[in-house]
Amino acid sequence: MADRVDLKTMGRTDLESFVETLDEPSYRGRQLYNWIYARGETDFAEMTSLSKSLRSRLGEVAQVSSITVKRMQQSDDGTSKALFTLPSRREAETVLIPSFDALGTAQRLTVCVSSQVGCAMGCSFCATGLMGFQENLSPGAIYDQVWVMNQEAQERYGRAVSNVVFMGMGEPLLNYDAVLQSVALLTDEDTLNMSPRRITISTVGLARRIRDLADDDPRTNLAVSLHAPTDEQRSAIMPVNQSEKTSLDALEAAIRYYADTTGRPITYEYCLFEGVNDAVEDAKNLAEITRWAPSKVNILMYNPVPSLPFERTTTEQLNRFVQALVEEGVTVTVRQSRGQDIDAACGQLANA
């Protein structure tokens, strides 16, 4: 099986080209695409709209890889976390996060997907960073996470997934091509038909790739994991900031370019750590960053990770921090932490 071509790494155009190498018309590639991504089929024998001879040939030269659910956990707050086994035998985690209205009805169902196994960024507060980088996920493996969690959403809440955020394991912009290809799969009207406006790509702030994202413009949202408002503070907890290519100066230039090119606002993710980045002065410095381009700030309360020397800031200090931002005219929200009891909250994903 190792030398067979994995069709789950291909989109529609690639599949059309692939079947042509088998002396088949291109429309067979479109049929394959429908079977693989719209129906979730992995067995060529079941793809009955294909000729028997093509199905037999595909069985000889190709395969359709898939991820399998090793474990599905449920949080008391309704959050689901899946541990997936990849074709490589490595594992990645994905989270389904419901948001409920006053009557307890799920109004928003967000899938937090992983783009890598582990992460090379080494942020000192993150459990995933402790794993180091292990593997880039294929476009199909990213897509499959949403496919499986969409089934979970349908079964548990009777409705489809509404949003996707690339905020799971890994740095999405270090797996740039696969992430953009997965967005194309997710938004295709023949598959899950998601709106790109309901997909958010998050990054630690890789300036060059933010510019690429502006130029390629998949029409998704952009979130930047900032977490500190000065180079000195940021470099202390996020090693990526130590490079002149990814410093706050480089990030500022990239953010301005992105906003000017796409016309879309930026979301800054800012996790509060007690005594590290939660002072009122930090809030004022953060407010200056928000003026680079139209933006808003999402405040996250830290989810403790055993063995890491960070603590969650107090509610009183959180309130002071938010008030300082509001006084500076910043649009700010405080994200509710979800799935802590199953280690599904932000920064806790580590194949546990």
TrEMBL record:
GO terms for molecular function: 4 iron, 4 sulfur cluster binding; metal ion binding; rRNA (adenine(2503)-C2-)-methyltransferase activity; rRNA binding; tRNA (adenine(37)-C2)-methyltransferase activity; tRNA binding. Binds 1 [4Fe-4S] cluster. The cluster is coordinated with 3 cysteines and an exchangeable S-adenosyl-L-methionine. Residues 105-341 form the Radical SAM core domain. The active site is at residues 93, 346. Gene3D superfamilies: 1.10.150.530, Aldolase class I. It comes from the Bacteria. Keywords: 4Fe-4S, Cytoplasm, Disulfide bond, Iron, Iron-sulfur, Metal-binding, Methyltransferase, rRNA processing, S-adenosyl-L-methionine, Transferase, tRNA processing. It is found in: Cytoplasm. Its EC number is 2.1.1.192. It catalyses: adenosine(2503) in 23S rRNA + 2 reduced [2Fe-2S]-[ferredoxin] + 2 S-adenosyl-L-methionine = 2-methyladenosine(2503) in 23S rRNA + 5'-deoxyadenosine + L-methionine + 2 oxidized [2Fe-2S]-[ferredoxin] + S-adenosyl-L-homocysteine; adenosine(37) in tRNA + 2 reduced [2Fe-2S]-[ferredoxin] + 2 S-adenosyl-L-methionine = 2-methyladenosine(37) in tRNA + 5'-deoxyadenosine + L-methionine + 2 oxidized [2Fe-2S]-[ferredoxin] + S-adenosyl-L-homocysteine. GO terms for biological process: rRNA base methylation; tRNA methylation. Its cofactor is [4Fe-4S] cluster. [4Fe-4S] cluster binds at residues 119, 123, 126. InterPro entries: Aldolase_TIM (IPR013785), Methyltransferase_A (IPR040072), RlmN_N (IPR048641), RNA_MTrfase_RlmN (IPR027492), rRNA_lsu_MTrfase_RlmN/Cfr (IPR004383), rSAM (IPR007197), rSAM_sf (IPR058240). Reaction proceeds by a ping-pong mechanism involving intermediate methylation of a conserved cysteine residue. Specifically methylates position 2 of adenine 2503 in 23S rRNA and position 2 of adenine 37 in tRNAs. This is Probable dual-specificity RNA methyltransferase RlmN.
